[in-house]
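Regression test case RT-17, inverse folding.

Input:
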């Protein structure tokens, strides 16, 4: 399933990016991941991350390896992508209350302080961040973006997986992709 563009799965942390990575892999897209961050209670199916992505501001050499593959990148790093590539971005959206609840639960499991009183401030920060990122993405001539609602995806995975396959223009197995959506892992419903 060779293609020349770089496929990225992006969004806020805890927005369903790892699940979308697994879906794309199940559908037939090769994944660029090093699996240094292993599965845990917060992501029992794994994170599907590639550590070098976090250094995109200073290290872009790995992008050549990413052509024809899918790689995960949080939304805050997208602005560092160099213009010499074509990118197709599957951008995950999730209700902010669920993102914040999931982050808080992850902190609690790791024995770190987690207080819901900061949620309104974090929600405002995330809302402003997403607004800026989406405006920036709309201006990039080498980036096509498909916004996918995690909440809607969990309700009707097959329809959304077919939509992702059409967006990427690849002969993906949408039924196999949809089979990855696990309601058991949808723990922060709001």
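Golden output:
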């Amino acid at each position: 399933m060779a293609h020349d563009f770089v496929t990225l799965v992006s969004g806020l942390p805890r927005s369903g990016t790892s699940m979308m990575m697994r879906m794309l892999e199940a559908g037939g897209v090769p994944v660029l991941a090093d699996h240094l961050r292993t599965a845990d209670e917060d992501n029992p199916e794994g994170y599907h991350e590639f550590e070098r992505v976090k250094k995109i501001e200073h290290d872009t050499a790995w992008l050549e390896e990413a052509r024809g593959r899918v790689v995960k990148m949080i939304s805050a790093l997208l602005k560092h992508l160099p213009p010499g590539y074509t990118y197709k971005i599957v951008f995950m959206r999730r209700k902010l209350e669920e993102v914040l609840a999931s982050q808080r639960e992850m902190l609690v499991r790791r024995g770190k302080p987690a207080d819901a009183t900061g949620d309104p401030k974090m929600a405002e920060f995330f809302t402003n961040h997403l607004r800026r990122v989406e405006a920036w993405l709309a201006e990039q001539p080498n980036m096509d973006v498909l916004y996918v609602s995690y909440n809607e995806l969990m309700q009707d995975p097959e329809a959304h997986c077919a939509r992702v396959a059409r967006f990427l223009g690849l002969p993906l197995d949408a039924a196999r992709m949809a089979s990855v959506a696990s309601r058991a892992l949808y723990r922060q419903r709001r």
